[in-house]
Design goal:
Elements lengths: L2 E3 L19 H9 L2 E5 L4 E3 L7 E7 L2 E4 L9 E3 L4 E2 L1 H6 L6 E4 L3 E7 H8 L5 H46 L14 E8 L7 E7 L4 E9 L3 H19 L8 H10 L8 E9 L4 E7 L5 E3 L5 E3 L19 E4 L5 E5 L1 H4 L10 H10 L7 H16 L8 E8 L15
Length: 416
């Protein structure tokens, strides 16, 4: 609450106050000399919107702001020394319409409503001055509300544009169920949850030829539209390079060089690419600064699969990438993810981490489909976060290798 200060003789020139201009000094001085003076600290509230008010306040020193409910700018209308506060509620008898807050240390004169109407209102010129002040305030408030509405409309327009951008971005990702309908040798499922309207994560899954499938998960630096644009560029280049043939050890160096071209903003992407030969389960991993994926052998526990390594893509010209090749057996499961999974935080700012991810993946039944496996991990992250705001995109891509023998000779094509 505002602190009362000692009553003191006024030491200001009343003629400088618009409310008291051309008003008889003698009776005015007597009323003000008997009024209370309040001291407010920075951020302290003098009036709250919707409350009853029985005082006319005059700001003597400092600066205050009147914040109207619904004003998106939150800057408020500035109140300078000599200006009146609460005059509208005194005139119409209604509750206050704004929150009035001190911006720095302020000193305020408080004149009781009864004193105002008995001693000040009858003074020639005072109500005329107050009416002018009220009209000025109403015009200023009207201008501010118009500006606030314009800002709100602009914000809504921006949200619609971001929504459209998100639809375009998500539309670029594969959404088939299953992801490889022409290759029953595998089950695969992808999931992406952006942290903002548009994000920088990506995943992809497509057949290079009748024998080779490509799966990829990437994470672009930053957030918002720049990250989304770089994500789409990465996705386009990834597909273009893969269309030239089965990736080899030149794949990531070439992609890195192409991403560097025209990259004045120094954006970068981490990327994990997996190429599976469906006839015999040969899996080759290429990694550009991305978290290592998880692998479960024939129904066993998930473990971190290391070996494929390299720096992030897009900003460093001379980067060495080391691939990793493993042979999948029927029943093996692979999970590729972005760091939005392991770096998800709970309200205590503790990270989810690899250990919890491996444990939650381990709770899925051995015969669970990839969709169930991924959604189980998503639920595990959500439970751990416990309502904390999502700070990064979450992307998960799972693959279950069934092998080709169980599907008959049609799928046992020669190894290329």
């Amino acid at each position: 609450m505002p602190v009362k200060s000692q009553v003191a003789e006024p030491n200001w020139d009343l003629r400088t106050f618009a409310l008291f201009r051309d008003v008889d000094d003698e009776p005015l001085t007597a009323v003000i000399a008997g009024a209370r003076r309040l001291s407010l600290s920075d951020g302290e509230t003098l009036l709250v919107s919707g409350q009853r008010n029985n005082h006319l306040y005059i700001l003597l020193s400092g600066r205050m702001a009147a914040l109207l409910p619904g004003d998106l700018s939150q800057r408020g209308m500035v109140i300078q020394p000599g200006e009146a506060i609460g005059e509208m509620s005194l005139l119409d008898g209604r509750r206050t319409s704004a929150n009035v807050v001190a911006q720095g240390v302020c000193e305020v004169l408080a004149i009781e409503e009864a004193v105002f109407w008995r001693e000040l209102a009858p003074l020639p010129g005072l109500l005329r001055n107050m009416t002018r002040l009220v009209i000025q305030r109403m015009r200023a408030n009207s201008d501010r509300l118009v500006q606030s509405m314009a800002e709100q409309l602009k914000l809504e327009h921006l949200r619609k544009e971001l929504g459209a951008a998100r639809d375009i971005q998500m539309g670029l990702l594969p959404h088939r169920t299953p992801l490889f309908p022409d290759h029953p040798q595998v089950d695969a499922y992808g999931y992406l949850l952006p942290a903002k309207e548009v994000g920088g994560d990506l995943y992809d899954a497509f057949a290079i030829d009748h024998q080779h499938l490509l799966l990829a998960v990437g994470d672009v630096s930053g957030k918002g539209m720049p990250a989304a644009l770089f994500m789409m560029r990465t996705l386009t280049l990834l597909r273009s390079l893969a269309s030239n043939g089965v990736p080899d050890d030149t794949f990531l160096p070439t992609l890195n060089r192409l991403l560097m071209e025209g990259n004045d903003a120094d954006m970068f992407v981490t990327l994990c690419v997996a190429v599976l030969r469906v006839s015999d389960g040969q899996l080759t991993l290429y990694n550009g600064g991305h978290p290592a994926c998880f692998l479960a052998r024939e129904g066993g526990p998930f473990e971190t699969l290391t070996g494929a390594k390299g720096a992030l893509l897009g900003i460093m010209p001379a980067v060495r990438f080391v691939s990793k090749t493993v042979n999948l057996a029927p029943g093996d499961r692979l999970v590729v993810y972005s760091d939005g999974v392991t770096e998800a935080e709970n309200p205590a700012m503790t990270m989810y981490g690899e250990r919890r991810a491996l444990a939650d993946l381990g709770t899925a039944p051995i015969d669970a489909g990839c969709a169930d496996l991924v959604q189980g991990l998503v639920r595990g992250v959500s439970r751990f976060a416990d309502g904390a705001e999502q700070s990064d995109d979450i992307t998960i891509l799972a693959l279950h290798y069934h092998g080709s023998a169980r599907f008959g000779p049609k799928y046992e094509s020669p190894v290329s």
